C-alpha cells in the first residue's frame, strides 16, 4: 500500500468561482514531501500563505472560500492563477517540493455554435477579447506553452468532453511530463475509457465512484487503466458529505494521488484526517514523485494491483 499525494484545491474559477477566471480549479501538489503527514503541512502552509497574498493584492472579500475550500480572487487569466501559485509556493519555502495541477473543466468554455473555446465566456459579450477564442489545436499549443513556463504536472479535462482529438494531440506533446486526466471525458465508464485508450486521448482517468454508480464498475474502470499503464486520480465531488470512504479506497487501490478539496471545510478535512490515521497505523510509504504509478507500486507491475490480487486470491 502507498499513501497518496494530496492535490489541494487552492484557486477556483469557472462555474465554481465568482470571478472572470475561466478555469475551474488550480491545485497545489506536494510531491517533494517525505510522507503524507508532511505533505499536509506543506500544502496547508502554502494554502494559508496564498490567503495572505490574495488578501494583500485583491482585498479581504477575495479570501472567502468556495464549495471545495479554494479562493476565488479577482483575476481573469489562467496565467494570473499560475503566477499566484508560484508566488505562494516560493514564499512558503517549498520551491521544487510543490508543483501545480489544474482542472480547467474546459467543456464549460467550449462554444458549440462556433466550435471554439471561449476563455472569456464569463464576461459580457462586449468585453470579450477575440484573442481568447481558440480552436482545439490553438488551445493545445497554448497549454504546451504554459507547461514549459510553469511547473504544471497535471491537467484534468483540458479540452472539451467530446474533443478526443485535441486531448490526444495534447497527450502526444505533453504526456511524458504532464499527467493528462479525463473526467468529463470518461465519467469513470469502462466503455468510454477503452475508447480513450484506443485513441490515446489521455494517460490517466479521474475516478469518481458515484459518477459511474457502483464500486464494482469503478474498480473495473480502474483496472482497465492500470492494465494499460494509465494513472488513476481519485476524486471527491464538489457537493460532499463527511463520509471518509474515499480515503480508504484511494489507499486500497494504490492510486498514488487524490483530490478532495482544500485543507479547509470539515467535509474535505475528514478525508485528510482519515488518511493521517491510515498512515499512522499502517506506516505506508508516500507516493511522492511517483504519484502517476497508479496500481503499480509493487514489484509485480500492473499485475500487482489490489483489484487484480483480490480477483485471483
TrEMBL record:
Belongs to the enolase family. This is phosphopyruvate hydratase. Its cofactor is Mg(2+). One of its GO terms (cellular component) is phosphopyruvate hydratase complex. One of its GO terms (biological process) is glycolytic process. One of its GO terms (molecular function) is magnesium ion binding. Residues 291-313 are annotated as: Disordered. Coiled coil: none annotated. Residues 1-294 form the Enolase C-terminal TIM barrel domain. The keyword Ion transport does not apply. Pfam families: Enolase_C (PF00113). Its EC number is 4.2.1.11. InterPro entries: Enolase, Enolase-like_C_sf, Enolase_C, Enolase_CS. Pathway: Carbohydrate degradation; glycolysis; pyruvate from D-glyceraldehyde 3-phosphate: step 4/5. Keywords: Glycolysis, Lyase, Magnesium.
